[in-house]
Amino acid sequence: MVSNIVERYIELLVKRKKIGKDQVEEYRYQALCIVESAIVISAMSLVGIIFGQFVNVCVFMLCFFNIRNRAGGFHLNAFWKCFLGTLFLECAVIVLAMCLTDQIIVFDCAALVSFAAILIIGAVNHPNMNYSKEEFVMTKKQSRNTVSFIVFMIIFLKIIHASVQTIMYMECAVIIAAILLIVECLSEHFTE
Q1: Using one digit for the tens of pLDDT, what is the confidence trace for 14-66?
Q2: Residue of 150, 188, 146, 152 lying closest to 169 (CA atoms)
Q3: Under a CB-based contact definition with an 8 Å cutoff, are residues 60 and 153 in contact?
């Protein structure tokens, strides 16, 4: 359904001579990414509002998507699967943060291990991205810088005794991003 809407939009752009036929693929991909991102962010925000965790969900999205966009990781093969998987992960994070605030040390340790994993791996070169060697080196560097910044923010928030739940949301973003990165690395290794 989403791809059909994007396809009609691209056809309209070509028909009105806003883009050339040689630009269709690039515009299709960009438009699809924008529409899918808007749907995911809107749905995640709505779930955050329903659970009364809107600010924490926004913090989670900011951290998670910043790492994920640079590091990459496991992707499901259809938008609806990715959409439902993302909402499931968000709900799991919300429940964990609400129920396990007294277990923050477990999250701290898991986030530290996840941080180390992202630092070691850096990123994966997903076939849809198909980075050149130079782009891939730069992407790994950006991934490591991003996760380092987020971990330093977590440490800073711990020092100033910020909300434990907010810190847990940030740590869950690092943990989930690392898990998806490791799963993709393992699947690449076993499919070779």
Answers
A1: 788 777 777 777 777 888 888 889 999 999 999 999 999 999 999 999 999 99
A2: 150
A3: no
